[in-house]
Amino acid sequence: MSDQLRPRASLRTAVVWEVLKDALDRLVEATGRDALDVLDTGGGTGNFAVPVARLGHRVTVVDPSPNALFALERRADEAGVADRVRGVQGDIHGLFEVVDRAGYDAVLCHGVLEYVDDPAEGVRNAVDALRPVGALSLLGAGLGGAVLARALAGHFAEARQALTDPAGRWGDGDPVPRRFTADQLTGLVEAAGLQVGAIHGVRVFGDLVPGVLVDTEPGALEELLKLEAAVAELPAFHSVATQLHVLGEKRA
Ligand SMILES: C[S@@+](CC[C@H](N)C(=O)[O-])C[C@H]1O[C@@H](n2cnc3c(N)ncnc32)[C@H](O)[C@@H]1O
What we know:
Layout: H1 10-31, E1 37-41, H2 49-54, E2 58-63, H3 66-78, E3 85-89, E4 104-110, H4 119-128, E5 130-141, H5 143-152, H6 156-164, H7 182-191, E6 195-202, H8 211-216, H9 220-232, H10 235-238, E7 243-250
Parallel strand pairs: 1-2, 1-4, 2-3, 4-5
Antiparallel strand pairs: 5-7, 6-7
Bound molecules: S-adenosylmethionine (SAM).
S-adenosylmethionine (SAM) is lined by residues 41-44, 47-48, 63-65, 68, 91-93, 110-112, 115-116.
C-alpha cells in the first residue's frame, strides 16, 4: 500500500505529494507528453517512486542501498507498476556513472541531502539530470523543527546545541547528520541555476502532537491534515517545520 493510501503515513507525505503531483501535471502540459521520465535520487523503497509510477510516469530510482532497491522492486510489483519503475544502485555524487545527464523531466531528492558528503554537489547533479524544461523536488530536514521538538521534549540544552551547531545537530546521538534552513535550501537550488517555484513547510505539527489524539479522536487526522496543508505555504511556519520542501523549476 502506498503512503498516500495509509492514513497515518499520509501525515509524512501529503503536502509534498500535492506539490509534486501539481508540478508533474504542469510538466505534462508543458511537454505535451503523458508519460514523463522521472529520476528519484535516494528514492529508497519507493515512497514516492511507486505513486509517481501509478500516475503513468517512468521512474528511475538511484539508491546506494541494495536492500532498499530490493524492497522497491517488490513494492512496484505489488502495485502493478514494475514495468515503469527501474532501480539502479548508485550515489548522487556519482550520478552520471549510472544515469544520463539531461535525461529527465523531473528529479526528486527527498530526505537525501542530510546524508550526503556535499549537498551543493548533490543538488548540482540533480539539476544536471534535468532536460531543458524540468522540475526539481527537494525535501530536506528542517533546523527549526528539530530545535522545537527537542525543547518540547524537555531537552533544552540539546535544542540550543542544534541552534548553534553548524550542521544543525543536537548532539552526538543525533541520527541526522545535517539540517537546513529554508534559506539554505533555496540557496542551493538557485546556485544550481533553477528558479524557486514554491517553498513548503512539512510536518509542522504532525510530529509534535501525541499520537493518541490523532488516532482516537474521530476526524482528528483529517483535520490535522487540513491544518498541515493550510500552514505549509506560510513563511512564518517554515522556521518550525520538521522538513522543508523546495520546488525548483527549469524553464527554457
Ligand atoms: C530517509 S531515506 C529517504 C527515502 C525516500 N527518498 C523517501 O522520501 O522516502 C534516505 C535515502 O537516501 C539514500 N542515500 C543515502 N546516501 C545517499 C547518496 N549519497 N546518494 C543517493 N542516495 C543516498 C539512502 O539509501 C536512503 O534510501
